[in-house]
Amino acid sequence: GAAIIPASQAKTQIGWFQKYTGEHEESLSHTLYSVGIAERAGDPFTEVLARVGAGHSLLALGRDDDAIEMVGVAHKLAIDVGYDAALPHAVGVLSLALARAGRTDDSLKRLEDWMGMERWKRTGKLELFYIQLAHAEALWRSHRISDGVAAINEGLAVAESIGNPALRIEGLTTKALILETYDQPDPRVTETRAERDELGRTYDLFTWS
Given a cut of 90, is residue 90 above it in pLDDT? Predict the structure, then answer.
């Protein structure tokens, strides 16, 4: 299946871009409007995409539990209607929300179950980035710092491979946070933040600092 409601998709896309320009309240307003359109139309495919978009907006505002509820519905819908193309994005964003809410065991289980499936190899680059970002944060928040660094480096490699500065900024922010938790000061923290901030200036994007 595919999303068929242009008005909802347009609002989701606007909200998506506003997340990266730092307009987080506006982003949430657009993505929630998109969810409403999809629900009224009874279109589960559009609703999955809208809810994942709203999950991004909620995470940007630090509303982790609300993001879990929002994307949890999208995840179940994607499974129920066989929307395989959108499922990995829902897995990544839901797992990221769970990790940030302190539910790291649940987050890691979802991620590792997904990565153990054959279709993991066919995950799109954008979706793969968010799975790696969630994996990095779940590992880090489980006190597996070195594993978290390795996971976010894999995510950054994905972002760089598709030339996406917004994803690179998001990944570099997480990398700096992870590196900060080492017992001894790590010089990579300063380098990572400098790279992130330069990308923000170059592309006029929010840097999560």
Answer: yes
